[in-house]
Amino acid sequence: MNLLLLIIIFTAVGGLLSVLAAAVFLLLPDRHRAAVLPHGISFAIGALLTVAFYGLIPEAFAKVGAEQFQTLSATILAGILGFFVLEKLLIWRHCHSGSCEAHGDEEAHHAHEAHDHSHNHGHGAKSAGALIILGDSIHNFVDGILIAAAFLTDVQLGIVSSLAVAAHEIPQEVGDFAILLESGYSKSKALFYNILASLSTVFGGVLAYYSLEDLHDSLPYFLALAASSFIYIAVADLIPSLHKKTDMKASLEQIALIAAGVLVIGYLHSVVHHFEAAG
Questions:
Q1: What is the per-residue pLDDT across 234-269, written as a single tens digit (0 to 9) for each?
Q2: DSSP state of 97
Q3: How confident is the model at residue 53 (pLDDT cuts 50, 70, 90)?
Q4: Are 17 and 143 in contact (CB under 8 A)?
Q5: Distance (Å, rounded) from C-alpha 185 to C-alpha 46?
Q6: Is residue 106 predicted with pLDDT exceeding 70?
Q7: Measured between alpha carbons, how far is 230 from 49 in angstroms, rounded to an integer?
Q8: Where, by residue number, does the polypeptide cross the bilayer (predicted)?
Q9: 259: three-class secondary structure by DSSP
């Protein structure tokens, strides 16, 4: 299949379908949604870390000589620190627009288990909604670039990367929906703006396809940045939310679902590789 078409399809999977899945998820009764969401977060952690350490990082190092290993490692480190700074700036901007409660901690933005507080629907809340849409658009655009970079390196890597993006985007989109609804947006408007923001994933992928093909030597560094993004999201934003539950049953469920994310992505990686080799 044409590589550009694959990029368009799988950036849509990572963006648009995650929005629709989140919209369907919001139709569940509150108690069911609260029970299911942490399981999705646990699975996403395993998926993201597996793609980063099993796919992206080994592929990046395989494409450079030993003399570039230190530079590539520094890129991963710089990426993780850079994503921390970017998220800190976004939180700071939310606080200075009077909407700290809408984005006050990791759960409000990524784990999203605290949607039942009451929010002010005035100027501050509307500003929070607008910032969520803008931030989500930028985030999705970057995801599109990273997915395209993975596809330009190896088709199987592109497929598992897009699936990992979808795995962590669904719980994030659920949270974005909740913030928009609590900011005074109707359900139809919240869905419309989230779909609009998700299209930036496809735009980022198409743009990267036409530009990164001419920057072949830079691809390992884009893969390193993709890995640092996945590692940061999993370790800094998702894992802390799991520590809110400390009982043995919940802990064992978390471990089992993280392991399931690892096994599913690892299995998909090997299946796609097998079909690629056979073709």
A1: 888 788 888 888 889 989 999 999 999 889 888 776
A2: T
A3: very high
A4: no
A5: 33
A6: no
A7: 7
A8: 6-28, 35-57, 69-86, 191-212, 218-239, 251-269
A9: helix
Could you tell me where the DSSP H helices lie in 115-186?
A: 123-153, 155-182
Report the first-to-last Cα separation within the chain, whole angstroms. 12
3-state secondary structure of 71: helix
Q: Say if CB 254 and CB 246 are below 8 A apart.
A: no
Average pLDDT of every residue of the chain: 76
Q: Identify the three-state secondary structure at position 40.
A: helix
Structure tokens that stand for 49 in this block: 């870390």
Between CA 46 and CA 49, with CA 47 as vertex, the angle to 5 degrees is 65
Instruction: Count Cβ atoms within 10 A of the Cβ of residue 52 and give its class: 0-12 exposed, 13-18 middle, 19 or more buried.
Output: buried
The percent helix, strand, coil of the chain (3-state, each to 5) is 85, 0, 15
Cα–Cα distance for residue pair 212/208, rounded to 1 Å: 5
**Cα 229 from Cα 238, distance rounded (Å):** 12
Mapping DSSP onto H, E and C, the string for 170-236 reads: HHHHHHHHHHHHHCCCCHHHHHHHHHHHHHHHHHHHHHHHHHHCCCHHHHHHHHHHHHHHHHHHHHH
Among residues 210, 231, 212, the alpha carbon closest in space to that of 222 is found at 212
Q: What is the spatial distance between Cα 157 and Cα 6, in angstroms, rounded to a whole number?
A: 12
Nearest to 241 by CA among 83, 112, 131, 153: 112
pLDDT score at 197: 84
